[in-house]
Amino acid sequence: MRTQPLESSRVSARFTRGVGRLVLERPEALNALDLGMVRGLREALEAWRDEHDVERILLEGAGDRGLCAGGDVRGLAESIMSGNAEGAGTFFREEYALNAAIAEYPKPIVALADGVTMGGGIGLAGHAAVRIVTERSALAMPETRIGFTPDVGGTWLLARAPGRLGEYLALTGGTMTAADAIYAGFADLLVPSERLDAVREALESRADPGGATEVAMLFDESPEPSELARRRPWIDSVFAAPDVASIVAGLRERPEPEASDTADLLETLSPTALTVTLASVHAARTDPNLRTTLEREYGLAMWFAHTQPDLPEGVRARLIDKDGAPRWRPESLAELPDDLAEQAFAFRPNVPLWG
Description:
- The chain has a single domain (2-346), classed as 2-enoyl-CoA Hydratase, Chain A, domain 1 (Alpha-Beta Complex).
- The protein is built from 16 helices and 10 strands.
- The chain has helices at residues 35-49, 73-81, 85-104, 120-125, 154-159, 165-172, 178-184, 196-205, 212-217, 227-239, 244-253, 257-266, 271-284, 290-307, 310-320, 340-346, and strands spanning 2-3, 11-16, 19-24, 56-61, 66-68, 109-113, 116-118, 130-133, 138-140, 189-190.
- The strands form 2 sheets. Strands 1-2-3-4-6-8-10 form a 7-stranded mixed β-sheet, with helices on both faces.
- A hairpin with a 2-residue loop joins strand 2 (11-16) and strand 3 (19-24).
């Protein structure tokens, strides 16, 4: 076994028997990503790119609660509130570059999305070559719940979900089970958590460098029926509407109790975040590649950081004070300018994403 030196002590990187193992080592925070962890992951991937002894990569989180709960949004919000929006920009640029590197990596990356995998965790696992979930998995892009918008290439994945599930998941921030994640295209295989050690062993003991998927499939089980699949008829009907107000109105007209509950939820979320998020998912449907999506998401992230009060307010209400009573500005969809999404899309960060 050989260990790769890293900038971050919160990421361990070692390889043995052909497998490079990357482990997020921040279980007390559900392995939430900070800048050092992003840099540590990128450093290891770069070091192993041309290392002949490393044939495949295994990405996982320490502990049994989750792969990664997301980025360190509290730290980002504190940077923004202190007037250092460019500090948040550094994190976004390096995180999105890591997302692209995972998607484009020349060796198969196997991600174990066991437990909580949300936000930035989707940016790690969602773009891997082999995406494994377990019965404990809970996947989501919950950014609208803190007055923000899905990023880390999340809208690329959302836009490619069946029907209008992408719009539904993006706006509501709803949590997917393993079955839902596979149905929606966020995961590939369901492996019982008790068999993950067997997966790790098999990845190391089998010599074929291109067979990571085939190895993982040895442990795959059929998921239970997806709840998202059951809900799809009314989701597709309502979330095909062109704007958030029409979606809420459509939900109110549906007979399903879940539709009414969804309308109630949307009316508690940031009107700005909802409007920009819907437009971002729509745009991602025609993006030619992930990098195009990441570039737009970066512009939107910096627009929020530089111009919008809802992101720090959402983090305050949900993660700092935890009062659950954010004061959105503006408070209602009716108060938004008609060209809000166009304004957001037109924002140009001071530092480009790809530098």
